[in-house]
Structure formats: structure tokens, C-alpha cells
Amino acid sequence: MKKFRSGDIAVINAANISRQEAQALIDVEPAAVVNVAEFSTGAIPNYGPHMLLDAQVLLLENVGEDFIAGFRDGKKARITEQGEIFAGDNLLAHGTQVERAKAEKDFADARRNLVDRMEAYFGNSIEFIHSEGPLLIDGLGIPESGAEMKGRKVVVVSPSEDHRTQIKGLRNFIREYEPVIVGVDAGADSLVALGYTPDLIVGNPEDIDTDTLRSGARVILPADPDGTAEGLERIQDLGIGAMTFPAATDSATDLALLLADYHGAEMIVQVGDSLDLDDIFAAEPNATPAAMLTRLKAGNRLVDSSAIINLYTVKSGSSSTWLWAILGILVALAAIVLIIGMGGDGTFTDNLIDTWNNIATTVQGWF
């Protein structure tokens, strides 16, 4: 945005663009906005496209991922009425122009779809409560393994796109508080690869490396309500003891959070596999009724790792760093001058002159 000038063409990759994102674009006054994705996918009713159209901005969508590699930032381009993007005579991509009628139709369809989807979603939530009420209320079926969590901080690491980066960002937190570390599925492998030994592993052993399973962590296997657990044969072949956790959810992350909550963790820091209302609205695969209810059960003790990482991140500008460095040097020089000037038998000036002459004589002697 800092390089953007009024009348430029903005290139974005933002499906279902929000009002905030649209306003950020409107503020820099683009001539057109080219979207790699769709401005409205139909998953949620979003006002972003309407705001851009109200600002008389040309909208072009679905130009495809290849366009990102084909254009150069800051170079001149033109858009034809047919939705073609040219750099000189070179055709870079072809998209679909978004008109007002299409934006209105997409919004109305998305609103109806959202209502239908939410009715089904909360219907499934009621079914989960009906089948797993004893688990959510009294912890029925939760393994006793994990008693050391009581009153302590717990870090639950689930696999995600950037979970390794998040683990690295928590290193100071882990060093300071020595929390109980729970590896979920392949997240346990990442912990071992980064030099940590998980206290517990929750997940299907088929998806976890043998060395990780043999790291000394206690293993808990997700199981069906009837007690059937995938990966049990592998655990038996490796000669590793394990406990099962029967539940109607097949998410190992949900089970790990319930385990930490039941055993009285003071704080549960979640790495990866986070969930918010936007995920539920957009019907993301991880936004299941079980995931929502599990996080509500953990309540205010559940903290996303990004919040902890922000607390441990010290931001400082390079200019202020240089100023402090220069100030430190000046203070040190002033202290030396004062010590020399007041440390001899003569006046302040005579002491400085004598010291300087002695230094000069010594240096001449070296050469």
C-alpha cells in the first residue's frame, strides 16, 4: 500500500473480500482491482464488492494463480472491456468483470445459503451434545493420563500450514514456564524435529513417526464410541503403552483440548488448527460442531499462540536503536573524560593534557 498511487491497478488474492479490506483499497483510490480469486464465492454474504463498485472501481476476478507469476509490480498494464489484461502486446490473463447485478445476486444467494448452512450446523451441534453431553459436562471417558496439567500452562501443538513457525515463536514462553507440551498427530513430529520432547501425544499412530512415538511421551489414541481405535496394532507392534479416548469426534485436537481442560490446566495455548466465527460461516473443514463446543468448554483458558508470541516480541525501530547506541558511546566517553580529569594531582585541564601526552608517547614507542 505504501507504494500505491491514485489511479494504479491493485492486484489482490482475497476471496470474499470484506468491508475492511475494501475500504483499505478505496482509500488509495485504485483505477481497478484485479482479484486472483472471486470477490464473492457464495459462502458468505460480503459487502466488499458493493463498496468498491460504489467508489467507481473496475473489478476483475478469477484471473487465476498463474497471473501472480506473470506480471511485474510497478509495470504498466491495461484492461480491456472483455476482461483481458495486457502488458504492452503481451496477454497476461483473462478475468470476469464484476457488474452491480452480479454482486447483488451473489450477495442474495450467499445469504440464503448461510442461513441454510447454519440451521444444519446447529442441528448437528445439538446431536453432538445429545451424544456427548456426559463428556462435555463431567469428562466421562477422558483418560486419567495428564494429571500433571493441573494448575500449569499447557501447549497443544496441532499440524497447520505455519505451526512450526509458531512453535519457534513460543521458545521464550516455553523456556520461562516449562509448560506441559501435547503433540497432536504430525504436530508431535514437528516438536521432536525442533528439539522438544512432548509430554503427551494425541493422535493416530499411523500418522506419527516411530522415533516420535518412542520419545518417551505418553500416547493417547482417539477411538470410536465403541472403543475401536485406529493405529492400535502399530502401537502394540512397537511395544509402546497407550490409552484410548473414545468420543464422537474424530479430531485429535478436540480431544487434546478436552484433556487439558478436564485436568485443570491454568492456560491452554493452542498452536495451529485455530477456529473462529468466520471459519464456521465459511464452512471450513475444521469448523465442526465438536470443534466449536470443545473450545467453548475450554472457555477463557484457551489462548491462541499468536497472542503469546506477540507478548514476547519486542519491536524497535532501527533509527531509535542507532540513537541509543550513539548516546551510550557519548556517555561512556564523558565518563572517561571525567575520571581522567579529576584523577590526577593537577588541574582538570592539566590532567587531560598529561594523559594525552602519555598515550601519544606510548603509541610512538610501539612503532
Structural domain count:
3
Name the shape in a single word.
flat
Helix content: 40-55%
End-to-end separation in angstroms reads 59 Å
Q: What is the string of SSEs from the N terminus onward? A: EHEHEHEEEEHEHHEHEHEHEHEHHEHHH
Question: How much is the average pLDDT?
Answer: 89
Total DSSP E strands: 14
Structural class by helix and strand composition:
alpha/beta
Main beta sheet strand tally, sense and closure: 7 strands, parallel
In the predicted model, the low-confidence regions spanning at least 5 consecutive residues are none
Adjacency order of strands in the biggest sheet: 12-11-10-9-8-13-14
Q: Strand portion, in percent?
A: 15-25%
Count, helices: 15
| Cα gyration radius (Å) | 31 Å
Q: How would you sum up this structure, described in words?
A:
This protein is α/β, with parallel strands linked by helices and 367 residues long. It has 3 domains: 1-140, Alpha-Beta Barrel (Aconitase, domain 4), CATH 3.20.19; 142-311; 318-366. Helices cover 46% and strands 16% of the residues. It contains 15 helices and 14 strands. The chain has helices spanning 19-27, 48-54, 66-70, 100-138, 163-169, 171-177, 187-193, 210-213, 232-238, 252-262, 277-281, 289-298, 305-311, 318-343, 348-366, and strands at 9-12, 32-35, 58-61, 78-79, 84-87, 90-94, 96-97, 153-157, 180-184, 200-202, 218-223, 242-246, 267-271, 302-304. The protein has a 7-stranded parallel β-sheet with strand order 12-11-10-9-8-13-14, sandwiched between helices. Strand 10 (200-202), helix 8 and strand 11 (218-223) form a beta-alpha-beta unit. The longest helix is centred in the N-terminal third of the chain and has 39 residues, at 100-138. The model has no long low-confidence stretch (mean pLDDT 89).
